[in-house]
Design a protein that fits this description.
Layout (H helix, E strand, L loop, with lengths): L2 H4 E12 L40 H13 L3 E2 L2 E2 L2 E4 L9 E4 L6 E8 L2 E12 L3 E7 L2 E7 L6 E7 L6 H17 L12 E11 L10 E6 L2 H20 L7 E6 L4 E7 L9 E2 L6 E2 L2 H10 L4 H12 L3 H8 L4 H16 L4 H9 L17 H12 L6 H14 L1 H8 L6 H12 L5 H13 L1
Parallel strand pairs: 12-13
Antiparallel strand pairs: 1-10, 1-11, 2-6, 3-16, 4-5, 4-15, 6-7, 7-10, 8-9, 11-12, 13-14
Bound molecules: zinc ion (ZN).
């Protein structure tokens, strides 16, 4: 029996994403760590953790976190607060991170993936840390620190251990990124670290329902492809250890993209004690019903539900609808919908349009930036022109065909000897001679008649 058939994979994920607010989470510093010209230019006493610096929570970041919660089917806590999570690390000047402990803003949601539903345990808001750079300057090894990123609002989305394969982990990550981008609250630039993936992976024998007594954490993965590869590698590695009657070590591992292997970073026997306690500088939140309703009203209709609507309204196949609605911008999606509506009203072929659009057969002026400003009717017109055919006088058509057949006796002979596919060539010749766009089926029929008479 294959090892993969003997074991079941249990994966939970933690995803961090930086919110794209104008200012940082607890101070007025500019939130633009990747665009900064120099290190440490967007800093102040608060985000540098200096004595006397008092944090003030960013209202927009909180509203966006609640919005994300609603878009991922979470319940919201009407009472919530920020807590201090204590640990020493050079990229965290205060020696604690402001995060959320027992009462996160959002809890118990889910995200649907093609491989099944993934439960969300919680979504909470915290601040990002600074960025360490290890370099060699003048033959000396040095560690440099850039606090432009320190204090940037960071959401953390934690799943239940519902993910059952590397493939599903990738599907989940992509779906979450799509939602974050569609809500227009995060750029999720993975290469820069604007979105970071972690997976907790363990195996249990098929049929077992309890969680395994160990888990291996893979940290700091910055691409979905690496995530899938790292999980697949871990599944094989752990299955081999379990086969030998041993239990994989509970540890944190990294991913070496060059060797396509995970490697041990540090062992973790038990949960760290961060000595969380409520941040005394930040008063807790009591969200009013009015406020929460306001947030609810600000959540746009999501691509998934728009796709379902298209299936009903426009009679589109579900897969096509999902595909075509998977765009990152709400404005673009509404624009696409208005085109589909006009096509539908004119009883034109929507699937053909989607194929043409996807294959870039319909070229929209200034496609890159302002295409949403193009009048939908103009796009429909382009589509109609692409498929328009002219009517042709039958006598002219037959005369042209006769001429083409006379000039291509080789092809006619081939046709008569059974190589009927040569008709394609003859059709091309006829069309070229006509210099008009005539329905190919009309031409084909007329040539067939001429050849067989
Ligand atoms: Zn600051």
């Amino acid at each position: 029996m294959k090892l993969q058939e003997k074991y079941e994979v249990v994966i939970g994920m933690e995803v961090h994403a930086e919110l794209k607010t104008d200012s940082k989470m607890f101070c007025g510093c500019k939130n633009d760590p990747f665009g900064a010209e120099k290190p440490n230019i967007y800093t102040c006493p608060v985000c540098l953790g200096m004595p006397g610096g008092l944090p003030v929570a960013n209202k927009k970041a909180i509203a966006w976190t609640l919005k994300l919660g609603l878009a991922t089917n979470c319940s919201l806590n009407k009472f919530s607060k920020f807590d201090r999570k204590h640990y020493f690390y050079p990229d965290l000047a205060k020696s604690y991170q402001i995060s959320q402990y027992d009462i996160p803003f959002c809890y118990e949601g889910y995200i649907d993936t093609p491989s099944g539903k993934v439960g969300l345990t919680r979504i909470h808001l915290e601040e990002d840390t600074g960025k360490l750079q290890h370099k060699v300057i003048n033959n000396k090894k040095v560690s440099l620190i850039d606090f432009n990123r320190g204090g940037v609002p960071l959401v953390e989305v934690v799943t239940e251990p519902d993910i059952t394969s590397g493939k599903q982990a990738k599907e989940y990550g992509k779906k979450l990124r799509h939602i974050l981008r569609f809500l227009d609250i995060a750029n999720c630039d993975m290469e820069q670290g604007g979105m970071r993936l972690e997976a907790n992976i363990s195996l249990r024998k098929k049929g077992e329902t309890e969680l395994p007594n160990y888990k291996v954490e893979i940290k700091n993965i910055n691409s979905f492809r690496f995530l899938e590869a790292a999980i697949n590698y871990e599944v094989e590695r752990q299955a081999e250890i379990l086969e030998q009657g041993e239990v994989p070590v509970q540890e944190t591992r990294g991913w070496n993209a060059v060797k396509s292997q995970t490697f041990s970073q540090r062992t973790k026997e038990s949960a760290e004690d961060y000595r969380y306690f409520p941040d005394p500088d930040l008063p807790p939140f009591h969200f009013s019903d009015e406020y929460l309703k306001e947030i609810k009203d600000s959540v746009p209709e999501l691509p998934e539900s728009i796709a379902q609507r298209w299936v009903k309204e426009f009679d589109l196949p579900l897969a096509k609808a999902i595909d075509f609605s998977s765009v990152d911008s709400e404005k673009l999606l509404h624009w696409l919908e208005s085109i589909l509506r006009e096509l539908h009203n004119k009883k034109l072929d929507l699937v053909l349009f989607i194929n043409d659009y996807t294959n870039k057969k319909i070229v929209i002026p200034s496609r890159a930036q302002v295409k949403e400003n193009t009048n939908p009717s103009e796009v429909v017109k382009l589509f109609e022109e692409l498929h328009s055919t002219e009517t042709i006088d039958e006598d002219i058509l037959n005369k042209t065909i006769k001429e083409v057949l006379t000039n291509n006796t080789d092809a006619v002979e081939k046709y008569n000897s059974g190589q009927t596919q040569i008709i394609g060539f003859l059709m091309g010749q006829v069309m070229r001679t006509l210099g008009k766009k005539v329905d190919p089926q009309v031409i084909r029929k007329a040539i067939q008649v001429a050849l067989e008479s």
